[in-house]
Every structure is written in C-alpha cells, then in structure tokens.
Amino acid sequence: MSGHISDNLLADYAGDVLKSRKFAKVSSHLAGCTMCTGRLDSLHSMPSLLASVSYPPIPQNLTTRIDSAIATESAARVAAEPATEADRRDLPQRAEPPRQGWRPPRLTSPVALRTLAAVGAAVVVAGGGYEIAAHSGGSATTNGPSSAAALPASSAPLTTGPPVSYQQNGHAHSINTVESNANFQASTLRRQTQATLAEMGLGIVNGTPKVAGTGGHAPNSFNTAAAPQPKAFTRTGMHQLAGCVTRISAGGTVVMVELANYQGTRATIIVVQPKGPVPAQVFAVGTACSATNSDILAQQQLQLPNL
Amino acid sequence: MTTAASDAELLRRHVDGDPEAFGQLFERHRDRLWAVAIRTLGDPEEAADALQDAMISAFRRAGSFRGDSAVTTWLHRIVVNAALDRMRRRSARPTTGGGDEELLDSLAASRTPVSDPSGATDTQLDVMAALRQLVPDQQAALVLVDMLGYSVADAAEVLGVSEGTVKSRAARGRARLLPRLSHLRSPTVPSQAQRNRSTGSNVLPAREGGDDGR
Question: Most C-beta atoms within 10 A of its C-beta, which of A144, A155, A168, B200?
C-alpha cells in the first residue's frame, strides 16, 4: 500500500465510517490520484451492481412445501395444546384468552394428512374436555374438571341473557339468549359454538335452553349469577336483536343466540337449523345486524346431534 | 369486516391457536424472505432449507415475540440467522484471505456454483462468486443494504447490531469485493434498491458522491 489508499480505508471512506482526521487524509490523497478516484467510483457503483443481480423467485414447490410444514406444525400443536399456555401468557394486549378450539388446517401434503390422522384421536378427547372446562366459569380451582393443567388463565363464563323474540313463518317465538365474554375466532367458530351448545346441554325445548348437563360438566356453570356483562342490552337493542335474529334465521329454527365477541369486537353468535335435512348454520353477526341488515361476520356449517 | 388483519394481529391469532394465521403471515412475506435467503446463501436448495427452517422456528417461537419490533423485522431476523447458520456450517468455505483467489477462479471457471443455469450473465456469476468470499456478517449487511435496498437503520434492527456496525460491515464487504468486481460496470438503469436507497439511507453520503455527486 505504498502511497495509495487501501481497499479497506477507501471503502470506509466511501461508507462514511471514518473519523474526520482520517477522512481528511483520504480526501487530500484522492484530490491528486486518478487511480484511487477510479477505485472510489467502483465502490460507489457497487451497491447498484449488487442490486442488479437477479435471482430466481421463490419456487412454487417451496411455497407448497412450507405450507405443508406449517400445516403439519399446526396439527402437531393441537396434540400438545395445553403446553401452549406458557406461550400465550407472553402475548401482549390480550384481555382474555379465547376459548380453545380446533379445526383441521388446510392440508396440502400426505405427510400433513398422516400427522393429522395420528393426532386426531387425542384431539377429540382432550379438546372436548378442555372446552367444557373453558366454559365452567369462575375459578378454575373449585371442583375443576379432571385436567386442571388444561384450564386457561381465565375462562369465559356463560350466563343467561335476556330472551329475544323472533318470527318464524309468521309465528312469534322466543329464545333465551346466553351471554359470555368469549371471543370467537374465525378458525374456531364452529368449535367454540359446539362448546356453548354442549354446555347448554344440547337440548332445546320451545326455544328455551334446557340445562341438562350431558357430560361431566357442572350444571352451575350455566348460571345467572356469574360475572356481569360489559354491555347491558337496552330495549332498543333487544328490538334490533329480534329483527336481526328473525332475518338471520330466515324461517329456520333458532337453536342458540350467544351475545359474545367475534375476533375482538362485540358480536352475536346465532345457530340456526334450517328447514329440511341440511346442516345447521352458525352465524357471527356484528352489532349492526338488524331486521334490514345482516352484518354477517362469519358463517359456517355445524352438525347438531339429536335435534 | 374485510380489512386485512395486521401482521401483529395475525401473529396474535396464531399464538391463540388459529391454525390458519401463520400460513397467511408466510404468504404475505414469503417473497421478501426468500429474496433475503437466496441472496445470502446463493444456492437455491440451501436457501429453501434455510427458509423452511426459519418459518418452522418462527411458528414455534411466536409466543416469545414481544412486539418490540415489527413482525416483518422479526421474521427477517429469523431468516437471516438461519441463513447465516448455514453459511457458517459450510465446511469448505474459506473465511479469510489466502486461498480465496484460487477458489474464486475455479468457481468462476466452472460457471456452475451458485445460480440457476438459465439467464445468468457473466456479470451475475462474477458477483455471486465474489459474494461467497465474504464473511457471513459482511455478506448479510450487503444483502440487506446494497442488494435489497433496506435502510441502514432497518438492517441494523434485523441484524441486531448498531447502525455503525452495519455501515462498517458493509464497507468492509465492499472493500473485499473491490478487487474482484472493479472491472464490472453497474447497469445504467438504477435498480429498485438504488432508488429506495436514495430516499432513505445515508450509506453513501452526497459529500462523497464522486462524479455523480456534483
């Protein structure tokens, strides 16, 4: 490096990482050296040279492969669901853990399907117990279900809400609403709804939920004395809800109306059994739902046993 | 209710058990994450493995994401680290001077080492081969700042180092490339990265602008 500026020093100069004294030294050399000025030009053009190199886009088979890997992870995670509780506590800004739920991830590969099949049986057992536990309300320590480890930090107590009337084929019907702080999710809407139905005992008599503990869950988990609801329904609100339920049910039988949340906003979960041998539907509707406006946030089919 | 969920919301849903949310997050960012992986590693198969490793790692570690950086930054960091891990494990890869020129010559002569055979120009192959001579930290800085046009500040956040360190590593990387690439001309049309840089970054301050700076 006799006389000329080293690559490192010149690059530091070009990259603005030199102290002022060295910077001045390099500057004065450059003023009288065409060779080093030429090298500096090369350094200055290097970013655009590097940026000009084109690389292949992400291969289609790689996106498929990674989608499959993610689906496999999702399926495997379900099998170890209670273990994810530790992770959940790390999440910022979450008022209440939503009830756990599950539905099959999109599967794109045989390996994912095999994984899912392997964990499937465990899911049914663990998931069923868990959801009932999640609905048991109040303290997880009192008379808890068998698997205490599966209990969330806070659950979503289910209480009876005001009755709502609706029209079915020109006749007035009434159904007791249920209320909870549950936060229904797009991916678990069906599962969470089934949990509510399970807690209600699945039986519906003249539109009134029959509290008939079918599983091992305690009848007192469905009681009127649980936590107060954040939003009291006004008469106007109930009138709007009646119109909403009539509109959504569209002549079918209303099985359940739960005043809760959907993906973080207030929403009403409505289960309708349409006429005929077709699956029931669960709707999540927003607060704008009325006799003239559906405001459907989500809709899924639902199998109702023994109705 | 059709507005797209934010990255943070998707990640939160994923941690809450939504089986679809992480896939959506991947779909949203996969092109840029791939761009980082392929430029860092040069080899499509290695880049593919690194990206997959990174996504699975992110899937599992999502619960420890604390929101002190953007989700994209966090994803980039995981991909960069996965790629750097692979670079460091390359046993045959030299990391200091000495035999570099010889290896470079053989790579350049064979014309097969890093790229897809279709459409790669000599210039591209020269650049790719030269990049492999860099130490991983230098290369990561050059990939983010020079090749992809990230601001020094963004690159610093991704790499978890100070902005001064990013500038220093990038400068030393360019110094190392200089003798190998000084014969090449950069394209006349400025790249997207170059245009991005002109608005956001001070990698090459105007006072040193050389011929095009005055």
Answer: A155
